[in-house]
Design goal:
- With about 450 residues, the protein is an alpha+beta fold.
- It has two domains: about 325 residues, BirA Bifunctional Protein, domain 2 (2-Layer Sandwich), CATH 3.30.930.10; about 90 residues, 3-Layer(aba) Sandwich (Rossmann fold), CATH 3.40.50.
- Helix content is about 30%, strand content about 30%.
- Strands 3, 7, 8, 9, 10, 11, 12, 13 and 16 form a nine-stranded mixed beta sheet that branches.
- Helix 11 links the parallel strand 19 and strand 20.
- The radius of gyration is 25 Å and the shape is globular.
- The two termini are about 20 Å apart.
- The mean pLDDT is about 95.
- The protein binds adenosine-5'-triphosphate and magnesium ion.
- The site of adenosine-5'-triphosphate (ATP) has 15 residues, from strand 8, strand 13, strand 16 and helix 10.
- The site of adenosine-5'-triphosphate has 15 residues, from strand 8, strand 13, strand 16 and helix 10.
């Protein structure tokens, strides 16, 4: 991609409305545009990151056996009356009327709708377990939308819903999502800690919020230092093996870790003082077992092996991809801008032509651009006529993992410079070696 043809509306000044670093950097790097209170457009650079985040989530949901669907954003109030939540949900729900004066709503979540799908088709325990998920926009009329896409009113959510014959099955489904979440966040370069969360009237211990530690987080959390060094399960994890998955969950739920609501001073006192981490955190995911909360009022039941009808036991599993983009920036930036982890970087390489218009610089950049692209790399080629200082500032701000810098003096010596955005390390290499470094033929 040539920067001269791209849409990257960089802001020079710090936007005054942005209170936290991720919001500031997303605005400055031209990733998002605010459209209203808690409402944002995703501009090309931001959209690329959001898509990469979603792709990782998808891959890990699929690996854990969940199936992707897509449900509408606008829902009928009828379903919500069946579960009793239409009245309960309160002002966070955006209520709408259609031309026939029917009550509609913009979905804040999809338990009712997915339960309607389930009950229409699934009649036997033999069709279980089933886990359906989608990645869809939600609207919640938050009391205090703030911090950009971190807490917006319209936001993207991955929400999965599991259906099982009984508690044992539901717990195995819960555990699969638990492990899938560990892998998902690690792949984005994040350290997310599963913390015991409130289960409300459902009770039990099957509710965890996945939290990124960050000073700007909205939640107060408490955990054992051990979490900072626990090994995350690999890609070879066997999601069809309940015992293996259960053992991973055991390891990850044994040390102390709770959100503020679940904090237990007595248990906390037993953690050695030097191992106590009391910090602010950002909730990026939440998994929750709710049993027959929806299946019972909505009549979602299957015939069991005993020949009798059973209301299915369910859970829901949310991740906020749009919030995650901001959380990744909170966790990975410096004074000059964003530092993208490779897996979610909008481009792999920023190719900087220090003297666009110079025949040799243009030729070498063109050659490198083509070679990198042929090697499967995503490249943002700065071919604009801006001065080098401005180009470097932009490159650092948008945080691509690698910068390849081509200038007339280097070319005269047959060399170009590469810079690692994270470490700041620079190397000067012959042109052929640079191609090879990024997987291209010399
Ligand atoms: P919070 O306590 O932060 O309001 P929640 O408990 O309401 O979150 P869930 O209903 O569990 O959140 O939603 C699943 C995920 O969706 C959350 O873990 C979060 O990542 C994301 N999310 C929820 N509300 C918002 C929002 N207003 N803006 C952006 N992402 C959100
Ligand atoms: Mg909320």
């Amino acid at each position: 991609m040539r920067l001269s043809r791209y849409f990257l509306p960089i802001l020079k000044e710090n936007p005054r409305e942005a209170e936290i670093i991720s919001h500031r950097l997303m605005l400055r790097a031209g990733m998002i545009r605010q459209q209203g209170q808690g409402s944002f457009s995703w501009l090309p650079l931001g959209k690329r990151v959001l898509d990469k985040v979603c792709r990782i989530i998808r891959e890990e949901q699929n690996r854990a056996g969940a199936l992707e669907i897509l449900m509408p954003t606008i829902q009928s109030a009828e379903l919500w009356r069946e579960s009793g939540r239409y009245e309960d949900y309160g002002k966070e729900m955006l209520r709408i009327k259609d031309r026939q004066d029917r009550d509609m709503l913009y979905g804040p979540t999809n338990e009712e709708m997915v339960t309607e799908i389930f009950r229409s088709y699934v009649k036997s325990y033999k069709d279980l377990p089933l886990n359906l998920y989608h990645i869809q926009w939600k609207f919640r009329d938050e009391v205090r939308p703030r911090f950009g896409v971190m807490r917006s009113r319209e936001f993207l959510m991955k929400d999965a819903y599991s259906f099982d014959l009984d508690y044992e099955g539901a717990k195995a489904a819960y555990n699969r999502m638990f492990v899938s979440y560990l892998r998902t966040f690690t792949r984005m370069g994040l350290q997310a800690i599963p913390m015991r969360a409130d289960t409300g009237p459902i009770g039990g211990d099957l509710s965890h919020e996945f939290i990124i530690l960050a000073d700007t987080g909205e939640s107060q959390v408490f955990c054992h230092r051990d979490y900072l060094s626990l090994a995350v399960p690999g890609a070879d994890t066997d999601f069809s093996n309940d015992a293996e998955i259960g053992a991973i969950v055991k390891t990850w739920t044994t040390p102390y870790a709770t959100t503020d609501e679940m904090h237990d001073e007595a248990a906390w006192e037993k953690v050695p003082a030097s191992d106590r981490v009391s910090a602010r955190g950002i909730e990026v995911g939440h998994i929750f077992h709710f049993g027959d909360k929806y299946s019972k009022p909505m009549g979602a039941k299957v015939t069991g092996p005993d020949g009798k009808d059973h209301f299915v036991s369910g859970g829901s599993y949310g991740i906020g991809p749009s919030r995650l983009v901001a959380a990744i920036i909170e966790a990975s930036h410096d004074d000059n801008g964003i530092i993208w982890p490779e897996a979610v970087a909008p481009f792999d390489v920023g190719l900087i032509n220090m003297k666009a218009g110079d025949a040799e610089c243009d030729r070498v950049c063109g050659e490198l651009h083509a070679a990198f692209v042929a090697a499967g790399k995503e490249v943002l080629y700065d071919d604009t006529d801006q001065r080098p200082g401005g180009k470097f500032a932009t490159a650092d701000l948008i945080g691509l993992p690698w910068q390849v810098i081509v200038g007339p003096r280097g070319i005269a010596a047959g060399e170009v410079e590469i810079k690692n955005r994270r470490t700041g390390e620079r190397e000067t290499l012959p042109i052929a070696d640079v191609k090879q470094r990024f997987g291209a033929a010399a």
